[in-house]
Design goal:
Mean pLDDT: 89
Strand order of the largest sheet: 1-2
Helix content: 10-25%
Largest sheet: 2 strands, antiparallel
Structural class: alpha+beta
Distance between the termini: 38 Å
Strand content: 5-15%
Length: about 120
């Protein structure tokens, strides 16, 4: 990958994961252990005059790194346009939906990225 400007992005982060996140076990949460060693974060302005350019640059960076990216996203870093399915396997999402229907049939507890689609 050649050196390219990242503008209009205002932040590009590569966070090292591993440690307790990579340990399978009972406390690993609905997603289980995170096998990916890194998390890529790309932040830019979503203002009307910059949103299209920001999304285009994010897509360009992801395309440049495609060979290294699994596409999996932790639930806590989903972004507009994503769904809970981006974070959970099909079987885990089905289990979460079953729990949601059984424990919260009136949809009192809500999330930005609900498990019920």
């Amino acid at each position: 990958m050649s050196a390219k400007p990242v503008e209009p992005l205002i932040n590009l982060q590569i966070r090292h994961l591993g440690g307790a996140l990579a340990e399978p076990g009972g406390g690993a949460g609905a997603s289980g252990a995170v096998a990916e060693p890194y998390l890529l974060g790309l932040v830019g302005l979503g203002l009307p005059h910059a949103a299209d350019a920001t999304r285009a640059k994010q897509a360009e960076v992801v395309a440049d790194l495609e060979a290294y990216i699994s596409g999996r996203k932790p639930y806590t870093v989903l972004s507009p346009g994503d769904t809970a399915a981006k974070s959970f396997s099909g079987s885990t999402l089905a289990r979460l939906r079953e729990i949601k229907r059984a424990r919260d049939p009136h949809n009192v507890f809500r999330a930005n990225y609900p498990v019920l689609g």
